[in-house]
Amino acid sequence: MNSEDFAPVIIGKLLNIGGMLQRSGNQLLLPFNLNQQQFSILFSIEKAGKVQQKSMVNQLMLEKAHVSKIVKKLSEMGLIEIKADSEDKRSSWLSTTPEGSKIMKQCQKIITEWNKRWINGIDKNQLKSIADDLTLLQSVFKNGIEK
Amino acid sequence: MNSEDFAPVIIGKLLNIGGMLQRSGNQLLLPFNLNQQQFSILFSIEKAGKVQQKSMVNQLMLEKAHVSKIVKKLSEMGLIEIKADSEDKRSSWLSTTPEGSKIMKQCQKIITEWNKRWINGIDKNQLKSIADDLTLLQSVFKNGIEK
DNA sequence: ATAAATTAGTTTCCATGTCAACTATTTTTA
DNA sequence: TAAAAATAGTTGACATGGAAACTAATTTAT
Q1: I need a labelling partner for A30 at 20 to 30 A (CA). Which of A61, B106, B118, B121 fits?
Q2: B42 versus B142: which is more confidently predicted?
Q3: Alpha-carbon distance B90 to B133, whole Å?
C-alpha cells in the first residue's frame, strides 16, 4: 500500500467524522438554541476578547456571509455586543456580553462532560499524537492545495 | 498537559478540517452537479454493486430522510437505478447506471489529482498512522458516547 | 391469528449554508 | 489626487440538511 492509497481513506474518514461530530455537537447545544457553527463563532469571540468578522473568516475558513448571519443571530440573542470600529467604518468589533459568557461556560461544561466520555480508554500519548497529526492536516488543507 | 486538555483541541480540529474538506469537495464536484454528500452516496452504491438505503444510513451515519432525498436526486439525474426488492416491498435495491459509473470515474480522477497534491511532502508512514488514528476515532464516535 | 411494535422509506416544514450581487469604505496606482 | 481596485460586511435567492410526522410493509408478541 503506497501513499496515494491512504489519501482517499483519510479524506473519507475525516468527512465522515466531521459530519458525525457536527451532528453530535448540534444535539449537545440544542438546549442553548445554538448549533455547532454558531457555538464556534461565539467561542472565538469569547477567546479573542474582541475580534472582527474578517479575522474569524480567515481563521475558521468560513464564508463571510455565513459569519455575518451568525453574528447577527448571536447579537439578536443578546450573546454578543457589536461596537463600531473608529478606524475603519466598514468594520466593527465583536465581544461577548455577560450573558454570552455565561452561556459559553454552560456549553463548555456540557462539552467537557461529553469529551470525558469519548476519551475514556484512549491512551494519553495517542491523543497527543492525534492532535499533532490533525494540526498538520489542518495547515495542509487550510493553505489550500496548489495546482 | 493531560488527556482532557487534548479532547477539545482534537474535536475543534476535526470539525474545522471536516468543514474545509466538505467545501473543497463541493467545489471539486461542482462540474458534475454533485456535492460531497451526494458523491459519497453514489460512491457507496458503486462500491457495493447493489445496496439498500438502510445500510448506507447505518454505515455513513446519515439521516434516512437525507439519504432518501439524495437517492431521489441521483435517480432523477440518471446516475442510479432503483429496483424493487422482491422480498421486502418497503425497500428497493440501488445500483449505478452506466452513466453513473462514468461520472464516478471522472469524479475519482479529479479527486485523485487533488489528493496527490495534498499528500505531497507528507511521509508515507505518517499517512498510515493518521489513517489508523482516524479509524479509531471513527469507531469511537460512531458507536456513540454512552452516558 | 391478530394486535402491537418495528422497520424502510417518503414527505413536509423550517433553519441553515452558499453564492452572487450589492453598499460603503479604504487602499492602491497611474 | 482622481480613478481603479480591494476590502468589510450585508442582503436576497436558492439548494441543502435535519426533525417530526407520515405511509406501507414486516416482524414480534400475546
Answers
A1: A61
A2: B42
A3: 38
Q: What's the burial of B117, exposed, middle or buried (CB within 10 Å: 0-12/13-18/19+)?
A: middle
Residue nearest to nucleotide D23 (CA to C1'): B90
B110 touches chain A (CB under 8 A): no
* Residue A102, all three cell numbers: 455565561
CA distance B86 to chain A (A): 32
Domain count, chain B: 1
Q: How confident is the model at residue A1, as a pLDDT? A: 78
Average pLDDT over residues B116-143: 92
pLDDT of residue A146: 47
Residues of chain A where predicted confidence (pLDDT) is lower than 50 = 146-147
Residue B94 within any structural domain of the chain: yes
B132 to chain A, any CB pair closer than 8 A? The answer is no
CATH code at position B91: 1.10.10.10
Is the residue at B133 inside a domain?
Answer: yes
Tell me the residue range of the domain where B104 lies. Answer: 27-140
